[in-house]
Amino acid sequence: MSSPRARLALCALMLLGLSGCGVGDDFSDLQAYMDEVRARPKGSIEPLPKFQPYEAFTYSAAALRSPFQPPIKIDLAKQQKGSKDVHPDETRVKQFLEGFNIESFEMVGTLSNGSGSFALISGAGGVHRVKVGDYLGRNHGKVVGIDESKVDVIEIVPDGEGGWLERPRSLALRERS
To answer: Are 89 and 135 a contacting pair, CB within 8 Å?
Structure first.
């Protein structure tokens, strides 16, 4: 076993030996690299790519039939002819819900109070209260009946030959999911 004095001397000798490592002013490799970097041509950064301006896209098929619903087959022989007596009232002020397709609405409930009964219709960004006589949908749809399970609507649609047809529709109550 060595004495503590010998250990201390050995440690001091090792520290003295290690302190001599790396002493010197030879930075020639670092200086050569710095000279190479400084010698590179200035302006070697590539210019930014040219971006094309954004062109807004307007979806123009919003009023058409959804491609996920089956097409309605029309038998031309059985097709009803329009009547000149039936036509929409173009002079009345349009209601808010007439700006949306009737397919976007569904019935979610009913309300009754002293002034009558109302249907709660979900769609067009919220839940709306409608009563008999209100209009909804883009085809001049008028609410003609409300019961606990459905809202009955009569739409006035063109027949394609200058006349108008009344088309009944119903919005069924949506069951909880």
So the answer is: no
Residue 30 CA to residue 15 CA, distance in Å, equals: 27
Q: What are phi and psi of 16, to 5 degrees?
A: -65, -40
Q: What is the pLDDT of residues 3-29, one digit of tens each?
A: 888 888 888 888 776 665 555 668 889
Q: What is the pLDDT of residues 115-172, one digit of tens each?
A: 888 999 998 889 999 999 999 988 889 999 999 889 999 998 887 777 888 889 999 8
CB 155 within 8 A of CB 167: yes
How far is it, in rounded angstroms, from Cα 134 to Cα 146?
11
Nearest to residue 143, comparing CAs of 163, 120, 125, 174? 120
Domain 81-172, CATH 3.40.470.10 — does that match?
no
- Per the CB < 8 A criterion, the answer to whether 98 and 135 are in contact is yes
What is each CA distance from 159 to 15, 84, 110, 112, 128, in whole angstroms?
A: 105, 11, 33, 37, 30
Q: What are the contacts of 139-145 at 24+ separation with CB within 8 A? A: 139/102, 139/167, 140/88, 140/89, 140/98, 141/98, 141/102, 141/169, 143/119
pTM above 0.90, yes or no: no
Query: Which residues 6+ apart lie within 8 Å of 133 measured at CB?
Result: 142, 143
E-assigned strands of 52-136?
A: 106-113, 116-123, 126-130, 135-136
